[in-house]
Design goal:
It is built from seven helices and no strands. It is mainly alpha-helical.
């Protein structure tokens, strides 16, 4: 039971990391599996192969580098949200080795994909705000923070999974509350504009 809890926390932490960068957590999963620090579910053992490590290394470097190209970062955000959800599902499912398949995949889709998607949407909003307020000049700061947080959260998940899962949940709750308050303020502003126009 405790091992299953650790595996779920590990998967949740790694899935949340996918919301910051899609390939960083997957690369760390592959490296940890190759070093025999992490046991993968049978369907995901291919992640620990050299071809997977090579492919994920190239993808990670390209993803990190592309986010430093002005305006390309915003374009990438629009296509990387579904990829982050898919990567979150894979990360969560790969770590859980001993669980009923229905429960495992439900957990991977809802908790893994949900946390990755929520964080990705939050970071997309933050990048859009940075672009609007600084003309894109501060986007490199957001990009640097994103991949460093992805790396740190992934490493934390590998070594202290329960803490990583708690931090992931806090991040998701914070981003949901932030998005909700932003929507409320936006609706209030829209109501004020017609009133002042009359």
């Amino acid at each position: 039971m405790f091992e299953t809890l650790i595996a779920v926390c590990l998967g949740l932490g790694l899935a949340a990391s996918c919301g910051f960068r899609v390939f960083v957590p997957l690369l760390l999963i592959a490296l940890a599996a190759k070093a025999e620090m992490l046991a993968l579910a049978p369907a995901f053992e291919w992640l620990g192969s050299w071809p997977a490590i090579g492919t994920l290394t190239v993808a990670t470097l390209l993803e990190i580098g592309a986010y430093y190209v002005p305006w390309l970062d915003n374009l990438l955000d629009s296509v990387s949200a579904p990829a982050a959800v898919a990567a979150g599902i894979v990360a969560a499912a790969a770590c859980v080795t001993d669980m009923d398949p229905l429960l495992k995949w439900s957990l991977a889709v809802i908790a893994g994909g949900g946390s990755a998607g929520t964080i990705k949407l939050g970071m997309t909003g933050l990048r859009a705000m940075a672009t609007a307020t600084t003309g894109g000049l501060a986007n490199w700061v957001v990009s640097t923070i994103e991949w460093l947080v992805s790396l740190a959260l992934s490493l934390l998940a590998l070594f202290i999974p329960i803490l990583a899962a708690l931090l992931s949940l806090i991040l998701v709750v914070f981003l949901v509350r932030f998005a909700w308050s932003w929507l409320v303020r936006r609706r209030a502003a829209k109501r004020r504009v017609p009133a002042t126009a009359n």
